[in-house]
Automatic annotation (TrEMBL):
<dbReference type="InterPro" id="IPR023582">
    <property type="entry name" value="Impact"/>
</dbReference>
<dbReference type="InterPro" id="IPR020568">
    <property type="entry name" value="Ribosomal_Su5_D2-typ_SF"/>
</dbReference>
<protein>
    <submittedName>
        <fullName>IMPACT family protein</fullName>
    </submittedName>
</protein>
<dbReference type="InterPro" id="IPR001498">
    <property type="entry name" value="Impact_N"/>
</dbReference>
<dbReference type="InterPro" id="IPR036956">
    <property type="entry name" value="Impact_N_sf"/>
</dbReference>
<feature type="domain" description="Impact N-terminal">
    <location>
        <begin position="22"/>
        <end position="128"/>
    </location>
</feature>
<comment type="similarity">
    <text>Belongs to the IMPACT family.</text>
</comment>
<dbReference type="Pfam" id="PF01205">
    <property type="entry name" value="Impact_N"/>
</dbReference>
Length: 206
């Protein structure tokens, strides 16, 4: 199976969404995240905002490629697998990553049963994803190219020909340029620079 160098994510938090079932209220939120620290911060903020709620159930997934995915689902006191996993199921269904979805529940006095809970948390997650702008991004590799100033034209010609993205540069007697390359093009770009006389290239992702 070919490894894809594309992934889907969101770039900003979703607007708040609300799903109601038998007087219970379920507020859904989606956030772009890349670390557990960010997850904790969003949960703390929501617990302050909804301090009278009963449950703050969530799921998240990090990692740009399938083999790198890290995920967690949390029922936060609801019956086992009735909240976190239905939320995570929606993350998978939308094919999104680097994302946190939290569904906050205010208990309305009537028990919904496990089936009702699964439906409510799934719907809250689905609504928050539908309210989000999901974008497709490329998985990129960063290379550092370093060389003497006299070889500048050689390097810049390849960068221009291959339309490469420069993310950082230091152009002095000895020069350093950092480029960001799509994963699928990475090995061919590496070979081009590696074969140039007096040009050095280093993979910054190792």
């Amino acid at each position: 199976m070919e490894t894809t160098d594309l992934y889907k994510t969101i770039t900003k938090p979703s607007p708040e969404v609300l799903f109601k079932d038998r007087n219970s209220k379920f507020f859904g939120y989606a956030f772009p995240v890349t670390s557990e620290e960010e997850v904790k911060q969003h949960l703390e903020d929501l617990k302050k905002q909804h301090h009278q709620a009963r449950h703050w159930c969530y799921a998240y997934q990090f990692g740009k490629q399938e083999q790198d995915h890290v995920f967690r689902a949390n029922d936060d006191g609801e019956p086992n697998n009735s909240a976190g996993m239905p939320i995570y199921g929606q993350i998978q269904s939308f094919g999104a990553t680097n994302i946190l979805i939290v569904v906050v529940r205010y208990f309305g006095g009537t028990k919904l049963g496990v089936g009702g809970l699964i439906n409510a948390y799934k719907t809250g997650a689905q609504m928050s994803l539908e309210a989000s702008k999901i974008v497709t991004r490329t998985v990129n590799i960063e290379y550092l190219i370093y060389f003497d100033y006299k070889n500048m034209n050689k390097v810049m010609r390849v960068i221009k020909e291959r339309n490469l993205n420069i993310t950082n540069q230091k152009l002095e007697l000895s020069c350093e340029i950092t480029i960001s390359v799509r994963l699928k093009d990475a090995s061919s770009i590496f070979e081009i620079f590696d074969s140039l006389y007096e040009i050095n290239i280093k993979d910054l992702n190792d």
